[in-house]
Specification:
single chain; about 290 residues; alpha/beta; Uracil-DNA Glycosylase, subunit E; two-stranded antiparallel sheet
Length: about 290
């Protein structure tokens, strides 16, 4: 469905420009001439074939998209037990995010949109701030050194990486013009712009517990800066879901003190307790001072 994705992206970009007060676009004469020509698009949707030969305008883009969607074969509602509707909804959300152009600076510099990964039926969801260079290259969240540490934390909790869901507030790596290495914190506006994708993920997955990894993730969720040193270990509520703020794994890589590792682990023990998961004596004793 690349055609529909491109239509969504084009329509969304034009609507964004309109909402910003723009009433016209500067277009080169040769581009304008090309746009005035009929478009010939052949779209295959299951066993349906649609051809479009209309002037390329916002209205015709919208009309063609509606025609294409209407031509999809109708199916009976899925059983609530097989989860296929949720998979479809997540896949469609991922497609929309993959062609998002709402932050032009991020869209032009990214290699991949880092949507999220894991079990969409999981009761546990981890939310970070934004992809780094490794995540941007691979298209998956938390695959760098901080990601390796998060994976170890998840395994120590008794889960594995594929049995939880991991996402970020920002789906694109923050651009770093003039820098050859390193990452930067997402801006408030960038997080606000991208937050609807995360909200839809949360609404679809319906986790029983969310773990917010670091102060920026907390700020992205709750819309205001909050001191993670005071907030961590204390339950918050976001859209009726319990949220456990804790330190970002990158912080533990910078600060190897056993006391800091124990703080994060105490937060995870609270998460396990909230989920009603079994906690062994060995787990209770991790990272305690001798």
């Amino acid at each position: 469905m690349n055609y529909l994705r491109l239509l969504d992206a084009a329509i969304g970009h034009l609507e964004d420009l309109k909402s910003q007060g723009k009433t016209y676009l500067n277009i080169a004469p040769e581009t304008l001439l090309a746009l005035q020509q009929p478009i010939r698009v052949k779209v295959q949707v299951a066993s349906w074939e649609i051809k479009a030969e209309e002037p390329l305008t916002t209205a015709t883009l919208t009309q063609q998209r509606e025609k294409t969607l209407a031509a999809r074969p109708q199916t009976q509602p899925d059983s609530p037990h097989n989860g296929s509707r949720k998979k479809t909804a997540i896949a469609e959300l991922m497609e929309r995010a993959a062609v998002c152009l709402k932050c032009p600076n991020l869209a032009s510099s990214r290699k991949n949109v880092v949507f999220g990964m894991g079990d969409i039926e999981s009761p546990l969801m981890f939310v970070g701030e934004a992809p780094g260079a490794d995540e941007d290259a691979q298209g998956e969240p938390f695959v760098g050194k901080a990601g390796e540490l998060l994976t170890r934390i998840i395994k120590t909790m008794g889960f594995d990486r594929n049995s939880v869901y991991i996402a970020n507030v920002l789906k694109c790596r923050p651009d770093t013009p003039g820098q050859t290495a390193g990452n930067r914190k997402p801006t408030t506006d960038e997080m606000k712009t991208c937050l609807p994708y995360l909200l839809e993920q949360i609404d679809l997955i319906k986790p029983r517990v969310i773990v917010a990894l670091g102060a920026t993730a907390v700020e992205g969720l709750f819309g205001k800066p909050m001191p993670i040193t005071k907030l961590r270990g204390n339950w918050q509520t976001f859209r009726n879901t319990p949220v456990m703020p804790t330190f970002h794994p990158a912080y533990l890589l910078r600060n190897q003190a056993l006391s800091e590792k124990r703080k994060v682990w105490e937060d995870m023990l609270q998460v396990l307790e909230k989920l009603g998961a079994p906690i062994s004596e060995k787990q209770k004793g991790f990272f305690q001072q001798s």
